[in-house]
């Protein structure tokens, strides 16, 4: 199981770009890197997922270097509503009975200030 | 778009009572996951089902049981409730099991044991 490590908290101001880096040194060949966002008392919400290089969608970009031992979630021009906990997760690939379960480690509390 | 439905949204029980939480996945999703999130903690995987069969088991107490029915909805049965069971219980669904599949979380059921 690949353990993930990310900063406990980060602060930013509205309009800035925020980059949250996560390390996952023991990631396996078939594992995916996935990021979720969670607001207080709400279920986590999928943000982005990638396997290697760069992935971009309408809300974020995910950068994964060739060795895949880390990844960086990039949020462009954050707003107050982006204040939330962000979880970096390694989604197990085809590993038999452990398919699909998500291991939530300590997420990053992002606070966006006006 | 249809989302994951959980009921009830709030539940108050006394110690040693039983509780049943229900989860209705997104239509055509065949996989259901249950997570528990205690106060100030990160979500912890409990159990999952794929095509009505248990596919994976995490840190679910023996006092808890769950199943997925023919219509793909799932129920988490909790007996001999303890104070420490007070938490948010999230259900998530996906199409397929492998790590590359995004999980969609429901709004959660807040269980309070007094």
Task: Describe, in plain words, how this protein is organized in 3D.
The complex is a heterodimer of chains A (114) and B (114). Chain A is mainly β and 114 residues long. Chain A has one domain: Immunoglobulins (Immunoglobulin-like, Sandwich), CATH 2.60.40.10. Chain A is 0% helix and 46% strand. Chain A has no helices and 9 strands. Chain A has strands at 9-13, 18-23, 32-38, 45-50, 53-56, 61-64, 70-75, 84-91, 108-113. The relative contact order of chain A is 0.33. With 114 residues, chain B is mainly β. Chain B has one domain (5-113): Immunoglobulin-like. Chain B contains no helices and 11 strands. Chain B has strands spanning 5-7, 10-13, 19-24, 31-37, 44-50, 53-57, 64-68, 74-78, 87-94, 104-105, 109-113. In chain B, β7 and β8 (74-78) form a beta hairpin. Chain B is globular, with a radius of gyration of 13 Å. The termini of chain B are far apart. The model of chain B has no long low-confidence stretch (mean pLDDT 92). The interface between A and B is medium-sized, with 30 and 31 residues.
Percentage of residues assigned to helices of chain A = under 10%
CATH superfamily of chain A: Immunoglobulins
How would you characterize the largest beta sheet of chain A? 5 strands, mixed
Silhouette of chain B: globular
Overall number of domains of chain B? 1
**CATH-defined fold name of chain A:** Immunoglobulin-like
Structural class of chain B: mainly beta
CATH superfamily of chain B: Immunoglobulins
Number of helices in the DSSP assignment of chain A: 0
CATH class of chain A: Mainly Beta
Percentage of residues in DSSP E strands of chain B: over 45%
How many DSSP-defined strands of chain B?
11
- Uncertain runs of chain A are none
Q: Helicity level of chain B, as a percent range?
A: under 10%
In CATH terms, what is the architecture of chain A? Sandwich
Q: What is the rounded Rg of chain A?
A: 14 Å
CATH class designation of chain B:
Mainly Beta
Q: What number of structural domains do the residues of chain A give?
A: 1
Give the assembly state of these chains.
heterodimer
In CATH terms, what is the architecture of chain B? Sandwich
């Amino acid at each position: 199981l690949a353990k993930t490590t990310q900063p406990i908290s980060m602060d930013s101001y509205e309009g800035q770009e925020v980059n949250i880096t996560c390390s996952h040194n023991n990631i396996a060949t078939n594992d995916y890197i996935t990021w979720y966002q969670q607001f207080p008392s709400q279920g986590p919400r999928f943000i982005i997922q990638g396997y290697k290089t760069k992935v971009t969608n309408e809300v974020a970009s995910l950068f994964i270097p060739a060795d895949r031992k880390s990844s960086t979630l990039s949020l462009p021009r954050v707003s107050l509503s982006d204040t939330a906990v962000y979880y970096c997760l390694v989604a197990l690939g085809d590993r038999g009975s452990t398919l699909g379960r998500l291991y939530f480690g300590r997420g990053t509390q992002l606070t966006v200030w006006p | 778009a249809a989302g994951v439905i959980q009921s009830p949204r709030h539940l108050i029980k006394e110690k040693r009572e039983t509780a049943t939480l229900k989860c209705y996945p997104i239509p055509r999703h065949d996989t259901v996951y249950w997570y528990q999130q205690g106060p100030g903690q990160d979500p912890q995987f409990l159990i999952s089902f794929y095509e009505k069969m248990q596919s994976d088991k995490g840190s679910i107490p023996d006092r808890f049981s769950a199943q997925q029915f023919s219509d793909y909805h799932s129920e988490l049965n909790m007996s001999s409730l303890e104070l420490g069971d007070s938490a948010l219980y999230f259900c998530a669904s996906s199409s397929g099991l492998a790590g590359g599949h995004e999980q969609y979380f429901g709004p959660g059921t807040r269980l309070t044991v007094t």
